[in-house]
Amino acid sequence: xxxxxLIRFSYVLLMGFGFPIMRYMSIHFExxxxxxxxxxxxxxxxxxxxxxxxxxxxxxxxREPSIILYLLLLAAFMTGNMYFFINGLKYTSALxxxxxxxxxxxxxxIMAAIFFQDEREKVKQKNFYIGSIxxxxxxxxxxxxxxxxxxxxxxxxGSLFLGIAIFIxxxxxxxxxxxxxxxxxxxxxxxxxxxxxxxxxxxxxxxGVIYQLQDVSSGLLIGLxxxxxxxxLTGMLFAFYIVQKQGVVVFNIIQLTVPxxxxxxxxxxxxxxxxxxxxxxxxxxxxxxxxxxxxxxxxN
Length: 300
What we know:
about 300 residues
């Protein structure tokens, strides 16, 4: 139980730093270049880990070629998801990105419950619905009274992009759930990151935007590389691990606390203030998460 809690807490904290980093990079890099560099740099790290510790997992790919197809589909969904997500961050804010992530919960839960028996058992619990509704209400309060964009048109455009991204993500998580039964999480992360990075690199080359990287300072480019490694370790590896070990439903409930972490970190690092109404919404989110996860903890 303590190990599960530590993993959940670490994910929320690290993602709290991750959204401001992604927001910063989305402003300074074109989306295709941004994702190409981030995914390839993070993917290379995962490939290195796989070569050292998980070479035996490659045998599974040879025995079951159908897994390769699922990995390609997962990478395609990841490519679409992050394209719209990064564009959404560019036009909104780090907080908006983290909050839209939790808004995918109802759709993700419904899809997971349709396809997986273990997920259906979780949503049958009464406390799940009570806690989830409270958390969603708190999240809405948190967003409505949060920092607002100066350009309403840009905010609407960005919100549309983020909405498309979370729809794709809800489907993407189903593939993660299915593949994770056959492959180690790190292997899934490595293949998904590298394939998505290659997709983005091809798109950046074909559209010519890749040449924009020549005008970027080496320091900023190195920062993007490290941002990619950080993002893959937190947003992909941690997320895939939680989906594999604790389920899609639990993962989406944990997502509810990420906006709180993002805002608190932005407060201490960037000096952004939190209104009383945001604080009230934050309390509701936390209470909702505790209620939703209560039986899960007891079950452990």
